[in-house]
């Protein structure tokens, strides 16, 4: 046998689908009679709100017992050094790999500095 909370959930979903269908029917009726759309009737709005509440209630209470979040039990055993240790943010592939300085002599025997950037020499 299905529990009462699951029955409330399914009834709420069914009622919500019916409210959506009623809203679509109302819009098509207004188009056929060439009237302006000023909003949904009160009964369709109330059916949608009540069925949404029923669905939320049913799913929350049929999910089971919630567990408390106890962060102090886990964090109390760790030291400050381990809390600030984030190895996923370590970067080892940077700086020196993108720029390599070259010191070359030109025809006047003076030192010229070049940068090696991605397989190209740049002044």
UniProtKB/TrEMBL annotation:
Instruction: Identify the stretch annotated as signal peptide in this record.
Output: 1-19
According to the UniProt record, one GO cellular component term is:
EMC complex
Classify the protein's membrane topology as the record does.
Multi-pass membrane protein
Entry's Gene Ontology molecular function annotations: inorganic cation transmembrane transporter activity
Q: What's the superkingdom here? A: Eukaryota
Q: Where are the transmembrane segments?
A: 40-60
Subunit structure, per the record? Component of the ER membrane protein complex (EMC).
This molecule's function is given as: Part of the endoplasmic reticulum membrane protein complex (EMC) that enables the energy-independent insertion into endoplasmic reticulum membranes of newly synthesized membrane proteins. May be involved in Mg(2+) transport.
Family assignment from sequence similarity: Belongs to the membrane magnesium transporter (TC 1.A.67) family.
Its name, as the record gives it, is: Membrane magnesium transporter
Q: What's the source species' lineage?
A: Eukaryota, Metazoa, Ecdysozoa, Arthropoda, Hexapoda
